[in-house]
Amino acid sequence: MRAILRYLIFTTLAFGFSAGLSAFAQTCYTAADMDVPTKTALESAGKKYFDMVVHGDSASLKQNAVSSLAADFSGIEGAVKDNQAGLSGAQPTVQPPYLLKVEGNAPQQRAEFLCGVFNKNGQTTNSAEFVISNLAPGSYGVVSVDATGSKNSATVSFVLQQQGADWKLGGLYVREGKVGGHDAKWFADQAHAYKSKGQTHNAWFYLLEARDLSVPVNFMYTLTSDTLYDEAQRVKPADLPVDSSITDLAGNGKTYKLTAAFPLAVGNEFDLVVKYQAADVSDSGKTFQENTAVMKALLAKFPELRDAFDSLVVRAVEPSGRDYGTMLHMKDIK
Length: 334
Known about the structure:
This protein folds into three domains: about 180 residues, no CATH class; about 50 residues, no CATH class; about 90 residues. About 30% of the residues lie in helices and about 35% in strands. It has ten helices and 16 strands. The strands form three sheets. Strands 1, 3, 4, 5, 8, 9 and 10 form a seven-stranded antiparallel beta sheet that branches. The protein has a five-stranded mixed beta sheet with strand order 12-13-14-15-16. Helix 6 runs antiparallel to helix 7 and helix 7 runs antiparallel to helix 8. The longest helix is centred in the first third of the chain and has 19 residues.
């Protein structure tokens, strides 16, 4: 399932990912900028770790991980196991790596790495940007490897930290490049078609998916991903929960508080997930009825969604975080 393939295994190099700027010193080297030994070392490390992932060799990955990641390795072990079948037989095609250097004596709250050539308008076809928060001083590599010839059209990306002469594993990100056989361009083209028909909600969700598919990791930004983001902002809905907002949905004689709405690819299906606030989900029968009521209300208000998604997944979420979800195909929601 693509939901698993896109799972970010977490990096415990004492950093997470977020947007923002930094006034501290950080430098990015593209493959064309870095010296040959460094480029070769990063590519070799990417191939080595890719081979371990393809063969399900979590033990060797752990042995080559930074100590903080090795101390809590269950997430990577699970994801490697889940992805092994889809990556079986894959051969590595290494994309040009990036070298990120952070100077100073303390972690940077927000670090922005500008890589390659920029112009007065920002990104160019030869540029990239990485935005990382709480990044400790040191040298880091980002290496993405395409799984050529595999069952799933996936890219395996590694975040590496230099320790002496070695490049240690600090993070792993596996992402499929297609959903149901469709790539980023296809989703962008569909979004443009929906927009031309006035179906701006569908256009919004499809542009989000196109942007997601256009980069190997979600903390990387390119000219293409920036363009898709700008397009999405022009059709961003005000009547659906976006950017942590909460919106009201009337249905079944009630008002439901929607907290999230986002696309999700599962296998060859492209579904829409919607979450809403619920006081109690312990009665599964009652919650199922509430979930289906939300589905009907949602499609009554936004009938265009039937054209864009295979199924609706509605999750009732308690204040504690416990939830109960229901999935129905569009044809079964009447």
